[in-house]
Amino acid sequence: MSDATAWFEALYAEAAAGDRDVPWDRDYPNPLLVEWLANHPLEAAGKRAVVVGCGLGNDAELIAARGFDTTAFDIAPTALELARHRYPDSPVHYRQVDLLDLPPDWHQAYDLVIESITVQALPPDLHEQAAAGVASLVSIGGLLVVISGARVGDEIPDGPPWPLTGDELGYFAVDGVERAVVETVPVGDGRIRWRAEFRRPDPEHDEDKTQSHWL
């Protein structure tokens, strides 16, 4: 782990010891992801999904419950231990993996990629690299869903988190991955979230480059 990511394991270790709470753990999946799935009845049979920075597993379990063969990864081993304890009968494949150093065999390996508030937890100078890593997971014809805090203006917050600007959201559109849909969703207290879809078009379906191979 680098200095920019080592704090994740420290936080989860303190949480496991009962010394602090994990600030983003809600004991339920991200409501913006729940809402998105309710409006997008995806065909999951035979499809692989990956959840980036899965933490305690709430989003990953939701995706698995929809029928996807789901992998979920986090850099913090204690987070994965807590997720397995919380969901002892889970079908999810939990893996300790660094987003900034992904396994080569994961390249373009997943039909559905879920990135929820992970990149924004990294310093801004890592946002482009991290977003490119996320995009690299998307298979040909696959779909990436990004949920993140949105930042307007030039002032960089004293994070973490460091919500993404509109330009930074564009970092996911790299290496053949294209931006398809971008929403701004109010979440209270004057805050907004990005909820965006990105797709890697299938060259065999050039008549509709925004269409995935299974939606």
From TrEMBL:
GO MF annotation terms: methyltransferase activity
GO biological processes: methylation
Keyword S-adenosyl-L-methionine: yes
Domain of life: Bacteria
Alphabetical list of InterPro entries matching this protein: Methyltransf_25, SAM-dependent_MTases_sf
Pfam families according to UniProt: Methyltransf_25 (PF13649)
Assigned keywords, A-Z: Methyltransferase, S-adenosyl-L-methionine, Transferase
Annotated PANTHER family: METHYLTRANSFERASE, UBIQUINONE BIOSYNTHESIS O-METHYLTRANSFERASE, MITOCHONDRIAL
Protein name as catalogued: Methyltransferase type 12
Ranges where the Methyltransferase domain occurs: 52-142
